[in-house]
Amino acid sequence: MSMNEGIAVVTKVVSTGVRRAPEPATVLTREDLDAGPVSLDEIEPGLWLGNASAAADVGTLERHTIRSILSVDSVPLPVHITDHPNLRVRHIQAADVPREDLIRHFEDSNRFIADSLAEGRHVLVHCYFGVSRSATIMIAYIMQKYRLGYEAAFQRVKAKRRFVMPNPGFVNQLKLYGRMAYRIDRTNERYKLFRLRLAGDNVRKAKRLPTECMDVVKPDPGVTQESPEPYVYRCRKCRRVVASRSNLLLHKPKSATVAQSPAKSGSRPHGADGENLGEKVRRCSISSEHSNRSSEKDTPMCNKIFFIEPLAWMTDIYRNTQGRLYCPKCTVKLGSFNWVMATKCPCGAEIFPAFYLVPSKTEYSTVVQNVQVTV
User: Fold this and answer.
1) Which of 79, 101, 242, 280 gives 270 a disulfide partner, CB atoms 3.0 to 4.6 angstroms apart?
2) Alpha-carbon separation of residue 17 from 10, 12, 14, 26, 31 (angstroms)
3) Is 238 a catalytic residue?
4) Is there a single domain that holds both residue 270 and residue 125?
């Protein structure tokens, strides 16, 4: 078979016995495995970590009384496993690349493992080789269960399966998970930037914002809300609310040398060639979550340019990779955006992707007085 790495195409057999050619909507499954010999290790009583060969071998599963399988792979397991009456199989589609978003699955995967073990079902967590993707899921579970940091949880798993090695992007997602107290905190600034960088990578490929990334676009703060935020930024010309303080993505000044205006770097953003996202988040010097801001009063944040989250009133961001931001009421230019290239702040920090308001075009208001109902 000429498919890559054991990925088989499922074909239909009609009543005449003639095999049809694959159709465009053909489902891919992993029938021919080349993950090497069966390999699995027991991390905790009843909880196993292994490769795809172990997950596809019924004899191995029966020998270890495994009844639940968490599969973290690009394609599902063969049908003789997924359709087995005595097995509960959950598939997380994921590639072993640093930019893969595994952190969004941590809560569901932790619940699947915990529920299965509580029911007395032994669990196998696997990916292709049982080294990176499945190890990441296992470490996240150990972190959450025992309230451990990444390094302690990693060493705990490595003591049972010596060659586990999450890729650098997964390592930084696990560290971020620990900083968020083992839950997905969508208000955490590091997490928001992480999601934005993933969205930027997707926009670069698709030339527009994909549906699965729409969550990074936040509601329009200028539209009537039941509990509007008291601290907002308005268009200086028409006083239309264009951002709330919680929409700011703060950063520390990179240097004392200040330019006069923001400039596009013209370079590919950090992390575009597979470098880990977490390290690039730190290089961008984005501040930690809002709860930590009070402890950073001795290190003032840059106020040369207001970098913010993408907002619903920015209609051009859905179909363009870069452009200008205009007030939705009076249409005066307020700033610019760029999904695919880093934008340099006058302080020297580079932010990717970037959505910014020019301070001279906006004003800070401490009281919401006339929040518009429509744009």
Assistant:
1) 280
2) 15, 10, 6, 19, 21
3) no
4) no
Distance CA 213, CA 87 (A): 33
Buried b (16+ CB within 10 A) or exposed e, 313-327: bbeebeebbbeebbb
Q: Same structural domain for residues 173 and 223?
A: no
Distance between CA atoms of residues 95 and 83, nearest Å: 23
| pTM over the 0.90 mark | no
Domain residue limits at 208 = 189-365
Residue 97 in domain: yes
- Choosing from 127, 213, 284, 347, which is the catalytic residue? 127
Q: What is the pLDDT of residue 28?
A: 52
Largest CA distance in the chain: 78
Residue 86 confidence (pLDDT) above 50: yes
Please identify which residue in the block is written with the tokens 């698709």.
206
End position of a domain, from candidates 155, 179, 203: 179
Same domain for 137 and 221:
no
Integer angstrom CA distances of residue 35 from 30, 32, 55, 88, 337: 11, 9, 11, 22, 44
Burial of 66 (C-beta count, 10 Å sphere; 0-12/13-18/19+):
buried
Give backbone dihedrals phi and psi of 222, rounded to 5 degrees, phi first.
-90, 0
Separation between Cα atoms, residue 241 and residue 222, nearest integer Å: 5
Average per-residue pLDDT for the chain: 83
Please tell me the total count of domains within the chain.
2
The answer to whether residue 122 is domain-embedded is yes
Is residue 152 domain-shared with residue 256, that is, in the same domain?
no
105: phi then psi, degrees, rounded to nearest 5: -95, -10
Residues 278 and 170 grouped into a single domain: no
How many Å apart are CA 98 and CA 225, to the nearest integer? 38
112 lies in a domain? yes
| Residue 184 covered by a domain | no
Whether 49 and 160 have beta carbons less than 8 Å apart is answered as yes
Amino acid at 11: T
For 203-240, the pLDDT digits (tens) are: 999 899 989 899 999 999 998 677 778 899 999 999 99
